[in-house]
Amino acid sequence: MPELTLVDGSGVRRDFPAKLTWQVIVCTVIAACGGLMFGYDIGISGGVTGMDMFLEKFFPEVYVRKHQAKANNYCKFSSQLLQLFTSSLYLAAIVGCFIGSICCKKRGRKPTMQIASVFFLVGAILNAAALNIGMLIAGRLCLGAGIGFGNQAVPLFISEIAPARYRGGLNLCFQLLITIGILTANVVNYATSKLHPYGWRISLGGAACPALLLLLGSVMIVETPTSLIERGKNEEGLHTLKKIRGVDNVDKEYEEISQAVEFSRQIRHPFKNLWKRSSRPQLVCGALIQIFQQFTGISVVMLYAPVLFQTMGLGENASLMSALMTNTVKPIGTLFAIFVVDRFGRRALLIEAAIQMFISLGAIGVILAVHLHSTNVVEKHYAVLVIVLVCVFLAGFAWSWGPLGWLIPSEIFPIETRSAGFSVAVIMNFVFTFLVAQTFLTMLCHLRAGTFFLYCAMLAVMCLFAKYFLPETKGVPIDEMVERVWKQHWFWKRCYKDHDTGEGGLDKPKDNTIA
Ligand code: BGC
Known about the structure:
about 525 residues, mainly alpha, two-stranded antiparallel sheet, 24 helices, about 0% strand, globular, binds beta-D-glucopyranose, MFS_dom, transmembrane, symport, Sugar_transporter_CS, sugar transport
């Protein structure tokens, strides 16, 4: 395997010897099972809320309305309670993520992932055994806590163990497993929708599988060297660094991490420090990229794809089938990104995909506006065209705003605010997924096809943001971001103009050049 040779802006060579070792690959795949949990849940929620037997048991009024011959196409699924079922998970995830970030810093990335899997397991059991809506929601809350802990720890973990040169591709495995989780859930839903009346229990209980994978697999993985050194376990940190890099000569990288950790020790309140001017670039970009990820309209397409297809007059089976098809596109798109993200860079993918998603979502909106009236059904060939456009949209998302929404916030913060800053970004994801999930059915009911144009407008804004305000982070070692990325950016460098002080009034060492 090649050694990493990095050249910074001043032409100084920075060599962090490293191989892409099996340890790193195995740890990445196991940790990414956190993505499998998240994805499975997203896919299952959309599927079961389209199943008659599930609606009949827990949401009888939605069931009745759905089967009324003249029910309004845009409104027949609108129910506050049904929306609460989907979005209660995100409320718990917000709290889970906040506590998870403290756990990540104090106890490490690995135990945080283990706690995540236990919560998720309990949630899956509660849901599979649900006798009433209370049990169903309690289960959703546990699943949410699991996702909060997991989504906080996994991307950070991967970004910290990955050699800089492969960080993008490895981190994207998290999104790859999210999409595989969604696809698996679609397959499971398709099979269980025929098993009356308990099929939905199998679907919901299936969430236990990814949780068990993460729980059992996590016994084998290492803690990140950064987290070990951060918690004073320097010897173990050095040993782990040698092991995962596959070389003995890790002194430069070890020194770099130790320096960053040393500085971070002066910061006792990372959340408070996040509001300092010097943290503003990372905080704004990290939070915005996650908010924008949701403003692509992805959750609208994902959570309600089967519902959307039914709205267009495709039957229950045909809807699940089309959701299955469209969801096969995403893992393929993310696989493509894994191979190009460290070559083309993050920004190129974000800009290209924003344009692609703008066009496809706009076209879906036009078709629905022109051809789907309140109580009719869209003609078959238009329904097929919508499915194709959904695929184009999803492919764009899958190689850009989807995976990079997790990668970029996990790599841009310095160690002192990394866990806290990343949690703010992840919480933004949950808050905005919640808002989108909670409002989409109502929005569809009132704004109709206009809902899609609203997301188009957001995509235009996002394209400009990626072009002008987001710096490129490909190949830059994670602990050198401030010096080599933020202080060089035309806009964000202003946040470092004056003396750049941390909480303790200390200045970060100006040059931690590795000769
Ligand atoms: C997003 C989810 C989305 C999923 C689709 C994730 O990165 O956070 O909101 O549903 O990707 O693949």
